[in-house]
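2 proteins. here.
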Amino acid sequence: MILQELVGSPIHFYEKKHLAALHLQTILVLPIYSKNKKIGVLCMGRTDQTIWNEDELSFLEQLTDHLAITIENVQLYGEVLHAKQQWEDTFKAVDDMIIVFDKDLHILQYNDAANDFYQIRKKTNLLINEPSLKQLIIDTFNAQKAGYLELNYPDQTICEVYSYPIHNKENNLYGVIAYIKDVTGKRKMEAQLIHSGKLAAIGEMAAGIAHELNSPLTAILGNSQLLLRDFSKEDPVFSLLYDIKKCGDRCKQIIKSLLTFSRQDEYIFEPVSLNEAVSQVLNLIKYQFEKNQIQFHIHLQPDLPLIEGSRTQIEQIIINLLLNAKDALEQTSRQEKAITIKTSYQHNELHLTVKDNGIGIKEERISNIFHPFHTTKKSGTGLGLSVSLGIAKKHNGSIDVISQLNKGSTFTLKLPVQSSQGTEVKM
């Protein structure tokens, strides 16, 4: 469209004021089309009233075509850039490690998870120096098929590595993606589940064996009692028979404790004596502790009030605390190894304190010891303290810990006297 005599023209439009300020006398407006769609206009102006000839108009029309192509390219570039940014954001957001290698095993790309794990920016060749991973990438290039590898690191970290070949649109292989997943936690959980299954099986076996032993033990105790009546205390045979009866009684108590601890039925909250729970546990494990030169110092406050709770579950807490103390003592070089057990009544709470003079706990570890699967033992489950804290909370209680490295640890179970009443807990 050609507008002549801009200054005196009666036609009003938005740009007129601004164009007039440039002292333009005439303007030419040409539409810009892209794929039959109007995407803009090209506005040309002159300071005189010369009319555009055919050559000029033809040139300007060609110019609008080039402008349309340029605008299309700019829009396309923006879309590509946006898509690229989206892909990079997705690539970085993946929690698992992703690393892209070229044919020379140089790292082309990696996400934040890979950098955090391997510190690639600081040690670019670290991954290449791992023979097993290097071989996996080479094999993937050669076979042009996906591969798999499991990496085991000295710090017990386990990673599963999946490799995938990358082809361009001509189907030429130019790279390999290594998808690395840290499965340490998963493997630990699987191991704990297997271990828990073994413990359940052992519990059932222990219960069965205990029942089987009860019959011959009843005969031993009964016959020893009958024979004791036929001998005076001064007779040497009396002493032998008395030892038989005493050991039989002890075996009977151990079997009773095993049956109690291995029960897998529903736990019903009822009045429980904390002192009796401690005594029951000691009957079960005290001999094994003393056999390992671990001495017990027991201070049970008499006449403690009863609490509403599950005796079996409370005994499980006590056993877990004592086993932890035993492990701590086995790691120390002390000549005198001791565990102090104390019960008391304070501020309407029953306190059970288990103190050892073992290896202690590092300060930075104390906040993690109640987390599931947290353990420093080679054969530990990492569930003992976590389960114990869960049981304590079910009883509206808590477990506190004070520890010094190489000096020992003190765990205190606190149970309120007024706890849940008549509550049935299904395990």
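next one coming up
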Amino acid sequence: MTDYYRSFSLVQADLRAGTITCRQLVDGYLARIEENRHLNVFTEVYAEEARQRADDLDRRWAANEPVGRLAGMVIGLKDVLSHAGHGLQAGSHMLDGFVAQFTATAVQRLLDEDAIVIGRQNCDEFAMGSSNETSAFGPVRNAADPTRVPGGSSGGSAVAVQAGLCLASIGSDTGGSVRQPAAFCGVTGLKPTYGRISRWGLIAYASSFDCVGPIAHTPADCALLLEIMAGPDEFDSTVSNRPVEAYSAATQMASAPRRIAYLRDGVESPGVDASIREATQRTIDALRAAGHTVEPVSLSLLDSLLPTYYILTTAEASSNLSRFDGVRYGHRTAEATDLIELYKKSRTEGFGSEVRRRILLGTFALSASYYDAYYTKAQQVRRLIREETERLFAEYDFLLSPTTPSPAFKLGEKTGRNPDDDPLQMYLADIFTVQANVVGYPAISIPNGATPEGLPIGLQLMASPFAEASLVAIAQEITDL
């Protein structure tokens, strides 16, 4: 495979024509993975297993036996999704040597449709980060410029698609962790409605925010993966029982004229990179020319999004990660002399600095003295944000904005590890993406050109709950403009 595929429809066409086999596909991806080891994308590659699945598919294809809808799709899994019999570490030393005991529902549904899993992908530790620099395996590098970050926390998953190391990846999105790296890497990332895809088998960061989501080159491929992964699950009480729509078919249908709001701050604010503002305005002009109504709006609670998000997610993280105590789960120190020291040293040794920071922030917000001042207040503001968003979508079909306020930044630029660094600057990379998670709405990031330096730019669209069909349809239309 001298080049790599950017659409599953092209893969299927070549497989049907006999110009390529599944084994050749897998071998081509494995060769590219080896050639791009410097990007630090995969924490583990399932080379022989992938070849065996490919050989079995080729045999079934030759014998005219039934194959699944994803036969020939080579995918990677973010290192927070459980795959039975395979390593699972969430990018953390806390889970060194851990092997998954069961398969996540979303992953199993892909396997049932004959997807080929080629490996697990590097990510920010416990999915906490916006740059993929907090991983115990070291930082992932952006294929467009290896001196820059790929975004996070699903940075390895985004670069894998960007660099042609697999056709698609499955990540997780808590505040933009699928969409922000997709924007930095020039690919498509979809965060579905909260509860649209089961979280069974996903290592929890913040349970009321976490969503499983696909990363691919096109909205059509993301739609197909969503269609297969979505739906009820007896193992997850938070998943929706609503019927799953034909999302993949929706991307092939012409979109009727829509009412689209665009975030005024995303086009006019000096805090947004000039190249991103210009690219967003060009898309707005193109949508108007295509017959859509596109109007500016402002969010009165925009400045409250990040504080609300980080108070609530760190509080939930503090609770979720309390199980990793050196007794029940995770790393156990060899140097403790009593129980309290066992807890302290195990968690200090196992968790990285960003995870410890968020646990401390969350524990503080949940403490008796500050619970009402921070956690309760953040929940109240979350409700106000949801109400404002509901009013917006009573008038418009979509909310458009840049995915990020800047293109990919330099490695080490915003880590907060130097005395003069401000770690809050890293959190600002999520300013446009967190709203969808705070309110539980679906959102997608699609490529929207590049800066003069050649760095990818992303465009985000958000829709009302369970409107993924119309969301992927308009995303595909913009992609095709």
